[in-house]
Amino acid sequence: MGCWLSRTAADVIAGDQPCVTAKKVYSWDKREKKDPAKYTIEKMVGVEVGRMPGMIAGEQFVVRECSHCCIFLLDHLNTITVDDCSDCTIIIGPTSGSVFIRDCKSCVVVAACGQFRTRDCQELQLRLLCNTQPIIEASTRVRFSCYQLYYEQLQDQFRRSGLSVFNNNWSEVHDFTPGTDGDKNWSVVMPSVLPDLKLPSQSPFDCVGIECSRTTSVVPFTMGSVSPPSYRMLGDEPLLVIIYHCPQQGAIVKGVVRVLQEAAGLSAVLYTREVTISPTEAVRVLGEAAAGDAGALLTAGPVVALLVDAPYHHIQQSVSAVRRDLYFLSPNNGNGYNIANKFFSFASLSMSV
């Protein structure tokens, strides 16, 4: 009879081997290790430097301690911080998260982002698209203008970042530390007031074809709060133009804006918004007539709206080439601005949710 304590030779050999437990592998262990140097520019003086399209690919980025530089970040990003820079021009690609500028002086920044904030900055010139309200803190002499930029890859980079080119709150600035004497720390200005933007002059950045013209800009120019609250009233009253969702929506909107600005001037378009509105909400906000035949288009996707301050015949001209069932124009009967105001109030509430 065998003893339960007895062991075979194989048991002895196996028992002599150490017990090895497989190491648990987590999802973050499988991620490709990133080289921080690829996503950092620091301590540069008097040079053109940056990253070409495809080199950042939605990662976080850091710029710090640079002076008298032209910095071109020509790709979409996750977030970016810019620290301790002076006398620099910085062009930042579409940034899905935040652009945070700290302790900078005498810089020009072109940025499109989800959130924008400055702290402890002086003498900034900002050409901005921001899907939320820009914020400044402990900053002085900051000038805001509407983002105007184009290069071939930019439209696709906006798509990858998830930013809307039509939800631009560039002029709706909130100052956490307003002056006590009534003077504002910031102002909104027309692009013509700002010095010409420094564009690339050296390879490889000069091959990208950067332009800062309103006629080619991916983001349409809007006046924002450059106009007083009562608006400039070039026309009978500011009116609402809505382009319903369709495959050509973006091209239609840009065509309408182009015709308006050529006919009535750069100040014709005050605001644009891209927002989802249901048929029921459309009836409540715009009225029965507006939503009656547009139910399928409203459920297909977001609409793009323009608040327009131009003579009525110019507004009619701007949509004359658009298929009639693809747009809504508020009536020029004294109630048009009330409808526009209701829609933009609805849009603001929807975007804040």
Could you walk me through the main structural features you see in this protein, from its secondary elements to its overall organization?
- With 353 residues, the chain is α/β, with parallel strands linked by helices.
- The chain is built from eight helices and 17 strands.
- Strands 1, 2, 3, 4, 5, 6, 7, 8, 9, 10, 11, 12 and 13 form a 13-stranded parallel β-sheet that branches. Strands 15-16-14-17 form a four-stranded antiparallel β-sheet, sandwiched between helices.
- The radius of gyration is 27 Å and the shape is globular.
List the helices and strands and how they pair.
Blueprint: H1 9-15, E1 40-42, E2 48-51, E3 61-64, E4 70-73, E5 80-83, E6 89-92, E7 95-102, E8 105-119, E9 122-130, E10 135-137, E11 140-146, H2 154-161, E12 174-175, E13 186-188, E14 239-243, H3 249-264, E15 269-275, H4 279-286, H5 288-291, H6 295-300, E16 303-308, H7 312-318, E17 327-329, H8 336-352
Parallel strand pairs: 1-3, 2-4, 3-5, 4-6, 5-7, 6-8, 7-8, 8-9, 8-10, 9-11, 10-12, 11-13
Antiparallel strand pairs: 14-16, 14-17, 15-16
Helix pairs in contact: 3-7
